[in-house]
Amino acid sequence: MIRVALMDDHPLILKIVRQELAKELDLRVIWETTDAAQMITLVNSRPPDALVMDLSYTRQQFEPVAAVRDLKARYPYMGILVLTGHDDAVWIEELLNAGAGGYVVKSDDFSLRLADGIRAVTAGRMFLSPTAAAALASSRQKFTLTPRERAILRLAAEGHANPEIADMLGVAHGTIRNHISNIYTKLGVDTREAAVKAAQQLRELPKPGAAVRHELRTPLHALIGLARLLQSRLERNGSLDAADAEYLQQLILEAERLDGLIEGLKE
Predict the structure, then answer these.
(1) Is the distance from CB of 133 to CB of 89 less than 8 angstroms?
(2) Domain positions in the chain
(3) Selection from 90, 38, 32, 110 nearest residue 67 by Cα
(4) Half-sphere exposure at residue 43, Cβ-oriented, CA atoms within 13 angstroms
């Protein structure tokens, strides 16, 4: 039995994933969380064989590459499978280099690939969904910045101040200042905004607008997951029943949320 832990900031995605994994006789979800800070506590108290985690956590202080590197250092036999809406090759390379064993893009019908991905990373094999594999194959990235410098600049791009970045990465505040200075020198800039723009042009940071695209994709993936779940129930049972009304209501709510996010882009 493979013990699985789940971390995603969208409760509905967690519910869909949990129901999909319940079909697998060799997989057992031992805990799940929407809170990035709680994840560390849970891993320490109940280490899973495989951790399935997203990258983005709204209004939470979390740097996924640093988290993966730290988790693999402390729990080298724990497989880590990234399940996310981000399909940027920069993220894929960063996470795999940090120690993640696999990367599944949610738009790649993750319900068909998740169980195999968990089994692969638990056995020490790499697993990439089709979109992740294609992105990685097309990338010929040569980095100017170090992994630590890229992590700092990603957090700076999200609007975090130096003290926040230091706390999130577990280093001294002066260390962050030194790294920022080195970043400016390497990129030939003298402001954070210019550094972020230069790094994006060099493809050392995700493309501009990546956070917005992920925010829009989250309810979209929930919609797709719910639709596929209902489709499989219909194919299996020949009809839907009263218990499925909850899923239909969630479909409507997620569609309304997506519509609201799209409407907000006009402002």
Answers:
(1) no
(2) 2-138, 147-201, 210-264
(3) 38
(4) 26
Quick one: 266 exposed, middle or buried, by C-beta within 10 A (0-12, 13-18, 19+)?
exposed
pLDDT over threshold 90, residue 5? yes
187's CB contacts (< 8 A; 6+ apart) are 144, 145, 194, 195, 198, 199, 202
pLDDT of residue 261: 65
CA distance 172 to 214: 31
Architecture of the domain delimited by 2-138: 3-Layer(aba) Sandwich (3.40)
Q: How far apart are CA 97 and CA 123, in angstroms?
A: 18
pLDDT at 212: 57
Q: Would you tell me the crossing angle of helices 192-201 and 147-157 to the nearest 10 degrees?
A: 120
Instruction: Look at the domain 147-201 and name its fold.
Output: Arc Repressor Mutant, subunit A (1.10.10)
CA torsion, ordered 216, 222, 228, 232, to nearest 10 deg: 180
Each residue's pLDDT tens digit, 86-97: 888 888 888 999
Give the integer Cα–Cα distance in Å for 174 and 102. 34
DSSP string, 124-149: T--EE-HHHHHHHHH-----SS-HHH
On the question of pLDDT at 222 being above 80, the answer is: no
How much is the pTM? 0.70
Whether 13 contacts 28, CB under 8 Å: no
Distance CA 120, CA 126 (A): 6
pLDDT digits (tens, 9 = 90+) for 147-159: 888 889 888 887 8
Contact 247, 230 (CB under 8 A): yes
Q: Which DSSP letter does residue 55 get? A: S
> What count of other Cβ atoms lies within 10 Å of the Cβ of residue 90?
23
